[in-house]
Amino acid sequence: MAEAVETPETPDSPQAYAPRNHADDAVRDYLASLLITIIIAVFGTAFIVQAFQIPSPSMAPTLLVGDHLLVNKFIFGGRGAWYDRLLPYRTIRRGDVIVFKYPYDDHPYYVKRVIAVPGDRVHIADQRVYVNDTLLVESYAVHDLSSADPYMFDFPPQDLRLIAAEIRPEWMNTLRHDVHHGEVVVPANDYFVMGDNRDHSSDSRYWGFVPRDAIAGRPLLIYWSIDETNAAVNSDSRSANFLHALENAAKTLLYLPTETRWARMFREVH
Fold first, then answer.
1. Is the residue at 16 inside a domain?
2. In terms of CB atoms within 10 Å, which end of the chain has fewer, N or C?
């Protein structure tokens, strides 16, 4: 009895080609691309780059209210592991502008400039900042003689009993331990920071050191900047009246081109 032999399918066979649903393929490809994009975006914002907005003038003129920043969260990522030398990490340096979580209250994000790193000795006299007995040359710093900050003339105060009420109690207690021979000594894993707008900045003079773990990253550039002093741009779109909120939103869009600071777009932060 002859054995049955399986004949291969030929192009003419109805089973040779299964009909494909191109619509399903397109949807599947779209969903796959969307998923990959979301994963990359989540990974990027979690580990590499994040957007921040400047809410106060404490870093003016380097950073202005209404500046929107892209912050490199990766650059200071090293924690001393053996593989750190293989990655483009670097240590935090004096003069770096950093974004960090404020040590108290609800931990909002602040932007300041690093003045001193762990082990440094800091004192301020006559609007000049000294680190390790060396005068800092600070082309970025500005002063307002009409409302001069007393801690730009004498910090730390020679008599700690004269500390102003603006200083946080926690910082006052720390100063009693970290001031030696008229200088503040920055502890390990902490940083002393100040705003470039020296007479209008709440910074380490008033609330203390920034812990290393609180530092989120370093601003890369200003990707957008808008003058929020304009009443139309700065109007409250959360009005209970829907028509009023809609009107405010329309005004914002209308004034957006004229109130955008185009000259600050894509400017690097130094």
1. no
2. N
Find the domain containing 99 and state its range.
48-223
166 with 246, same domain: the answer is no
Residues 66 and 85 in one domain: yes
Burial class (CB in 10 A: 0-12, 13-18, 19+), 18: exposed
E strands in the chain: 49-53, 67-72, 97-101, 109-116, 121-125, 128-131, 134-135, 154-155, 179-180, 183-185, 190-194, 210-211, 215-225, 267-268
- pTM attached to this predicted model: 0.75
Q: Residue 196 falls within a domain, yes or no?
A: yes
* pLDDT value of position 89: 80
Give yes or no for residue 190 having a pLDDT over 50.
yes
Tell me: do 212 and 85 sit in the same domain.
yes
Residue 83 within any structural domain of the chain: yes
Beta-carbon contacts of residue 121 (< 8 Å; ≥ 6 apart): 131, 132, 133, 180, 183, 184, 185, 186
| Number of domains making up the chain | 2
Rg, the chain, Cα only? 28
User: Cβ atoms within 10 A of the Cβ of 237, count?
Assistant: 12
Active site residue 112: yes
Instruction: Looking at the structure, tell me whether residues 246 and 166 fall in a common domain.
Output: no
Distance from C-alpha of 15 to C-alpha of 137, rounded to nearest angstrom: 81
- Which of 112, 201, 204, 225 is labelled catalytic? 112
33, 56, 58, 235: which one is catalytic? 58
Report yes or no on 251 lying in a domain: yes
C-alpha distances in angstroms, 31 versus 35, 135, 144, 149?
6, 58, 56, 57
